[in-house]
C-alpha cells in the first residue's frame, strides 16, 4: 500500500509539472479552461484521483482556480499573487519566538535598499510624490490610524520608484504580514511618539531629496528602529498586564 501511495504521488507531481510548463509557456493561456477531469485522466494516462490531487496542487500554487461543478480556469500567478501565497507561512513564522524580530530586520533591509535606490535614481516627479505623502503624514500626527495609513503610502511610493513590480508586491505583502505590529503599536502610540516617527521619516525624505545615498540608508534604519521600539514598548506593557 505504501508503494502504491508513493507511485500515485509521483504521478501527480509529474502531471503538475507538465501542466505547469504548458501554462507558463502560454500553450495553455491565462483565462482558458482546462479539460475536464475525465479528459485529463485519459490524455495523461492517469487515474482521476491523480488528476484531482494535481488540480489541488496547481490551485495552491496560484496557477488555476477550481470552481464548484465547473472546469478549472487558468489564472497564472502575478507578483502580488505570488506573495499572497506566502501569507499563511509568513504569519506562522512571525508567531514563532523571534519571528517578529526577524521580519522587522527583513523589512529594514528592504526599506533601506529602497531608500538608497530612491536617493540615486528618483525623478523630480517621484520626489515630489514623496513630499506630498510626507505632508499628508504630518497632518495626521494626531490621528493614529490615519498617521499609519499615510505613512504606508510614503513607503509604497518608495517601493514603486524602481519600477519593479516585485518590489511593489513585496512592500504590500510585508505591510499585510505585519498588520499585527501596526495594530498593537496604534493601541499604545501617543501623539508625541507619532511626531518622533514623523521626524525620522522626514529625515529619510530630506536625504533622498539631497541625493545622499548613505544618509538615506541611515535615516531609514533609524526611522524603522523607532517604529519597532514603539511596538516592543507596547508589547511589553501588554505582557506585563497579562502576567
How would you describe this protein?
This protein has twelve helices and two strands. It is mainly α. A two-stranded antiparallel ribbon has the order 1-2. Helix 4 (79-85) packs parallel to helix 9 (165-177), helix 7 packs antiparallel against helix 8 (144-160) and helix 10 (179-188) packs across helix 12. The N and C termini lie far apart (51 Å).
Tally of domains: 2
Name of the top-level CATH class of the largest domain = Mainly Alpha
Amount of beta strand? under 5%
- Specify the structural class: mainly alpha
Provide the CATH superfamily of the largest domain: GntR ligand-binding domain-like
Which stretches are poorly predicted, pLDDT < 50 over at least 5 residues?
A: 1-6
Mean pLDDT: 86
Shape: elongated
**In the CATH classification, which architecture of the largest domain applies?**
Up-down Bundle
Biggest pleated-sheet summary:
2 strands, antiparallel
- Strands of the widest sheet, in order across it, are 1-2
Q: Helix proportion of residues, in percent?
A: over 70%
Sequence of secondary-structure elements: HHHEEHHHHHHHHH
Q: How many separate helices?
A: 12
CATH topological fold name of the largest domain = Four Helix Bundle (Hemerythrin (Met), subunit A)
| Structural Rg | 23 Å
- Total DSSP E strands: 2
Write a concise synopsis of the structure shown.
The protein has twelve helices and two strands, in the order αααββααααααααα.
Question: What secondary-structure arrangement, pairings included, does this model have?
Answer:
Layout: H1 2-25, H2 37-44, H3 48-60, E1 64-65, E2 73-74, H4 79-85, H5 87-94, H6 99-121, H7 124-139, H8 144-160, H9 165-177, H10 179-188, H11 191-209, H12 213-242
Antiparallel strand pairs: 1-2
Amino acid at each position: 500500500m505504501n508503494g502504491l501511495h508513493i507511485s500515485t504521488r509521483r504521478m501527480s507531481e509529474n502531471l503538475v509539472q507538465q501542466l505547469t510548463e504548458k501554462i507558463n509557456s502560454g500553450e495553455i493561456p491565462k483565462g482558458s479552461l482546462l479539460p475536464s477531469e475525465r479528459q485529463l485522466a485519459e490524455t495523461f494516462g492517469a487515474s482521476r484521483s491523480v488528476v484531482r490531487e494535481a488540480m489541488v496542487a496547481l490551485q495552491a500554487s496560484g496557477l488555476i482556480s477550481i470552481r464548484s461543478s465547473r472546469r478549472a480556469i487558468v489564472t497564472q500567478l502575478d507578483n502580488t499573487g505570488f506573495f499572497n501565497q506566502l501569507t499563511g507561512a509568513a504569519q506562522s513564522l512571525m508567531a514563532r519566538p523571534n519571528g517578529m524580530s526577524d521580519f522587522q530586520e527583513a523589512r529594514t533591509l528592504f526599506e533601506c535598499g529602497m531608500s538608497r535606490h530612491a536617493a540615486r535614481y528618483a525623478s523630480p516627479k517621484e520626489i515630489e510624490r514623496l513630499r506630498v505623502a510626507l505632508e499628508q503624514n504630518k497632518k495626521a500626527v494626531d490621528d493614529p490610524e490615519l498617521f499609519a495609513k499615510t505613512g504606508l503610502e510614503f513607503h509604497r511610493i518608495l517601493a514603486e520608484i524602481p519600477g519593479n513590480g516585485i518590489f511593489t508586491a513585496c512592500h504590500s505583502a510585508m505591510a499585510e504580514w505585519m498588520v499585527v505590529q501596526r495594530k498593537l503599536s496604534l493601541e499604545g502610540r501617543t501623539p508625541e511618539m507619532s511626531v518622533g516617527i514623523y521626524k525620522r521619516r522626514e529625515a529619510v525624505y530630506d536625504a533622498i531629496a539631497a541625493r545622499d545615498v548613505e544618509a538615506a540608508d541611515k535615516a531609514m534604519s533609524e526611522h524603522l528602529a523607532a517604529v519597532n521600539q514603539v511596538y516592543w514598548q507596547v508589547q511589553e506593557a501588554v505582557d506585563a498586564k497579562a502576567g
